[in-house]
Each structure stands twice: as C-alpha cells, then as structure tokens.
Amino acid sequence: MDPRPRGIAPRLSRRGGRLLLAAPFALIATVTVMDILLPPEVHLGPFLIAAPAVTASFAGPRMTAFVGAIAVLAQAVVAIARTSLTDLNHTYQIAALILISIIVTFFAYLREAHERKVTQLRSIAQAAQSVVLRPLPRRSGPLRIASIYLAAEEEAQMGGDLYAAARTESGTRLLIGDARGKGLDAISEASLVLGAFRVTARRERELPELIGHLEAGVGSAERDVRGDRVGMSVDDDEAQEAFVTALVLDIPDHEPVVRLVNCGHPPPLLLRKGRVRALDSAEPSPPLGLADVLAPMVAVDSFPFDVGDVLLLYTDGVVEARGHDRVFYPLVERLTAWAGDDPQTLLGRLRDDLRAYVGGHLGDDAALVAVERLAPEP
Prior knowledge:
By secondary structure, this protein is α+β, with helices and mostly antiparallel strands. The protein contains ten helices and eleven strands. The strands form two sheets. The chain has a six-stranded antiparallel β-sheet. The chain has a five-stranded antiparallel β-sheet with strand order 3-4-5-6-9, covered by helices on one side.
C-alpha cells in the first residue's frame, strides 16, 4: 500500500469516493443558486462552510483545500450578484469561510498522517509476525492439519497468538498459545516460545520436560525486561505480568490417543460422529512465565483420538468475539453443524461465520488449528 495516500482516503472505494466528492460540490452549487435567487434579507452563504468541513472527513488536505477554494469563489460570485465584494456582510462571510477552510484542511492533513502511521505500524507488525509464525504442514504422519490466523481489523498492532508443529520419531507435537498484550512486545514473547518449542520438541521424550524448556524461555525474557541483564527497574509492572497461555499436544502415530498439557489455555474441542466435546484437563498447569508466582504443576492428560476424529485448537480471540448483541460467539453450537467436514473446509466455514457474527471486525486476533487423524496407509 502506498504510504502517501492522496485525495480520497485509501479505505474508500473509487466509486464510493466519487459519490462522496459529488456531495460538497452539489451543496456549493445549490447554496449559490438559492442565495442569488432568494430575497436580499435572506443569506445562505454561511452554509458553504459545510462543504470543506464535510470533505475533510473523507478526503485528503489537497482536495479539502480545493473544495474550500471553490466555496470561497462561490461566495464571491454571490456577493457580486447581490451587491459587491466590498459589502461588509459578504466580506465577513468570505473571511470566515477562508479561515474555516484553512482549519479543516489542517485537520485533514493530521487525519491523513495518522492513517499513514497506522498503515505503517500494521505493515511492520505483519512482517514481523510472518517471520515468526511459519505455516503448518498440511500432513504430518497420519494427521491432516489446517491452520488460520485472523488479525483484528480494529488494531494497528498484531497480537501474540502462535502455533507450531514438530515431527518426532513416534508422532507429531503441536503447540498453540497466546502471549499477553499486543504489538511487538507480544510478538517477541511468542517468538521465544516458538523458538524453544522448535528446538526441544523433537528431542524431549516427555511433555513435562518440554513444558519446562518453554517455561524457561519465557522466564529468561522476563528477567531481561526486568533489568537483571539490561539495567531496568525490577518493579516494571508490564514485565511482571508477562505470560503466555499455551496448549501442547503429543499425538502418536500408532496409538489412538492424544496427550496434552494445558497451561491456562482454552481446552481443545474434539469432533467425533457429529458431536463436540471439550477436552478439559483435570489439573491444568499455570500459564508459561508464571512459575515464580504459581507453583508449577505439569499434569499430562490423555484422551481418545481415533481415525476420523478432528481436534480444533483455538485462542481466546474466537470464544471472546462478540456480536452486535454483545453475546459471545457460540463456538460449540456452530461446530456441531460442521462436524463432518475436513480440517480445511471446517476452518473456512468457521472463519466466514466468525467474521459475519462480529460484523467483519474482530476485537482481538484469533488463531485456529484443525487436526484430523486419517486411516494408516498400507
């Protein structure tokens, strides 16, 4: 996207921009004609101020200034037609119109500069996140995998939602998580967790040891921010509250089970034969990064996961999305109707339905991963 938008704001379509631009010019023409034809004691010239003011709400400073100049010219035509340019009443009207046009042109410049800044921030965050968040493989052993990342349209900064997959000697390990906050700080936390997972997921035999490595990665980042290595204050509230909710799964190739550790994350949903079941952990572990605050308890839960079953992993941006009636998105109800779909189709329907439910504007980023166990190849 061009970082220097001109004229109509980039968010407007070309056709819609032309229709909006026609409005202030139509207003100028209407007020000018009526002001000339109406009796001398009636003055409609002050209404011309509305033309540049309205233009500043959707167009750039150049177009706003141009409309203001046309409005001033129209006011001068009215003055000549009715009395003269030196008439005191028309002189004050022209002066006021010039002043208002300058002010709204300045505000149009500020709005356009803000839009450029927001666009640049989003581009930087998206570039950083595209480097950190690699696409998941479509196949991993007997598993078929699909993933979707939905960015919050209302924010210029990206969130810290994350997911990853790693192939081991006996199966596949999956990670999904959500770092606290937004922007580059959240992406930095997410990158530390992803890096630790990619390095240790293949060599650690047990999930508790893998969780320990992930916890150590987040803990080291907090120590850096708190000042142990860079000289910052230990009382930094943001650093003390940094944490990452995560869900780590181990799916063996030759066993119809899934083993998982839930670190303060929304539980996965199992779709089996038209029914949806939440895989709630008996003893969930604390989020990564809170080992110093909460006693670390790493409990591994095991659930059946057979051929034809589908697991849906998601972040809280999905279940906390609200519709126009402020009701949370009914994820389980929606999934019941799509329980027979393959992962790619399932996520496509879920994405479209979620966006329609919130009116096209998510309040928070959302990550979705669907995993299906296929029949073993001969």
